[in-house]
Design brief:
single chain, mainly alpha, 2 domains, two-stranded parallel ribbon, globular
Length: 497
């Protein structure tokens, strides 16, 4: 019982840190969207998304880092040798491709090319450390993310309100580079204990030789799924639709912060999988989604107005993307459970990985088939960027639905664990009822000023919270009592319940 409470409490601490990260990141997003016109914001989003394609190196190495570190094996030295060798090679390709785009597709500017390159390099190193810390202590990894977010927010506040400097894409990228470096230094100070672990360079090299393509292909497919905006921008030679699509994602991304909890569950799943922890994962995910999804849909137009009044038209894309991310989080949990079946670092269940990869590739094919139709319409018939963003969201929806259905079937085949469907249904009903009530109560017109929309979002979110808790109490007061008990024990600092 104490172990179970510790698992939940670790996740809750992680979630609190992530809530702080969400808040800081959202403020940074507000600054970016309000200070940059849509065309500039689209260019900024293109550069960030373009960089993500090159982070597949650190994402792959980070995957190994988490697994080895979780089993108390030290591979730090070899990790960074591979990392820096890869950075040199990728930096050359990165610069050449951006230079070509700048000269032949749409203007970027050489200052932005250099700053984006620095951002990519620091993110590679940051991701490696994040992978190590995720295997060592998920709270420490979340605290590193917290430091990164707070530094970004603090520097931008100083630049805008103390130095009175006009925000530009260059300044935002420079702030991001500095925040990455500070977080890297923090992570580096936390590796002392890990260096005392058993050396595993030979095991690591063997794992890289035999298994590199598993995480590499998985992350590669993920990049094409989540960062298709690069392809859209290059095909249309226009970054404006990106601005409307990515602003919706800024709001909807709140749904994904349940993964702060899932990271602690994955570490436990790697050690051992039992029915209690698996069912607990489904319950936690469904409670969080039942709260956030109706809230975002009900207040989505107000939240978009906070970013910039121009982006209110992204509301319908926001609704579709909220559903996409909700389905995606359940798919993510299914993936973690299937992946964690193996018990040894070097002995992976290759058959399951290939099955998951086939599912991802097939879902990606469906997504791009829908996206091809959207791009054809955008190129020939549709000019409005918000409408392109709305149709674009259906490409993501087609992927998420197909992926969930196929992964659920695989989960049922591989693991003899019952999903708590009754609990999920109860939590979903409480969220839907709360969301309908909020939608009826909220203001019928959007405020003109930032302050008005911001306070409306805060006030009506609080009202929604009260409504949700009341309905949740009548539907499942036992679970609600357990959640508050765990939180209460955590605040008092007690070791068990």
């Amino acid at each position: 019982m104490e172990e179970r409470a510790e698992l939940i409490k670790t996740g809750l601490i992680n979630l609190v840190l992530f809530i702080a990260i969400v808040f800081a990141s959202f403020i940074v997003a507000i600054m970016s969207t309000r200070k940059l016109i849509p065309a500039e914001f689209g260019t900024y989003q293109f550069l960030i998304n373009f960089s993500s394609y090159f982070l597949i190196l650190s994402s792959t190495l980070s995957w190994f880092a988490t697994r080895f570190t979780a089993r108390k094996i030290n591979i730090i030295q070899k990790l960074f040798i591979y990392c820096f060798e890869g950075i040199i090679f990728l930096s050359i390709i990165f610069f050449v491709v951006l230079y070509f785009i700048n000269e032949n597709v749409f203007y970027i500017g050489y200052n932005l090319i250099i700053l984006t390159l620095l951002f990519m390099i620091t993110m590679q190193i940051y991701n490696i450390f994040l992978g190590i810390m995720s295997g060592y202590n998920v709270v420490t990894s979340s605290f590193g993310n917290f430091i990164q977010a707070i530094i970004r927010l603090g520097l931008l506040l100083i630049i805008i309100y103390l130095l009175f400097i006009k925000i530009s894409i260059e300044i935002i990228l420079l702030v991001f580079v500095i925040s990455n470096l500070v977080a890297i230094i923090f992570f580096a100070t936390k590796t002392k204990s890990i260096r005392n672990y058993e050396k595993g360079d030979e095991k690591f090299k063997k794992a890289i030789r035999e298994l590199w393509f598993f995480p590499f292909l998985t992350f590669l497919v993920g990049l094409f799924v989540f960062y298709d905006s690069v392809i859209v921008a290059l095909f249309l030679a226009n970054t404006l639709p990106l601005a409307y699509f990515r602003t919706a994602i800024i709001i909807v991304n709140i749904v994904n912060y349940i993964q702060a909890l899932l990271s602690s569950f994955y570490k436990k799943y790697l050690e051992t999988i039992n029915e209690y922890n698996a069912r607990l994962g489904f319950k936690i995910v469904s409670i969080y989604l039942s709260f956030t999804v109706p809230l975002i849909i009900a207040l989505g137009d107000i939240l978009l107005a906070i970013l910039r009044l121009d982006y209110i038209t992204s509301y319908y894309a926001l609704i579709i993307l909220t559903i996409v991310f909700a389905i995606g989080n359940f798919s993510h949990l299914l993936t973690l459970l299937i992946q964690a079946k193996e018990k040894e670092t070097e002995e992976l269940n290759k058959e399951n990985f290939f099955k998951l990869l086939k599912i991802d590739i097939f879902s990606l094919f469906i997504q791009y088939a829908v996206l091809a139709i959207v791009l054809f319409l955008a190129k020939n018939y549709i000019q409005e960027p918000y409408l392109i963003a709305f149709l674009w969201s259906f490409a993501w929806l087609s992927n998420s639905i197909n992926s969930f259905i196929l992964k659920y079937k695989l989960f049922k085949e591989e693991l003899n664990i019952k999903i708590p469907l009754r609990n999920i249904l109860k939590y979903t009903v409480s969220g839907i009822i709360s969301g309908i009530v909020l939608f009826i109560l909220k203001p019928k017109s959007i405020g003109i000023t930032f302050i008005e929309n911001f306070f409306n979002a805060i006030i009506y979110s609080f009202i929604y919270l009260i409504i949700f808790l009341i309905i949740f109490y009548f539907i499942d007061k036992k679970t609600l009592y357990k959640i508050f008990l765990i939180l209460f024990k955590e605040i008092l600092g007690k070791k068990s319940f």
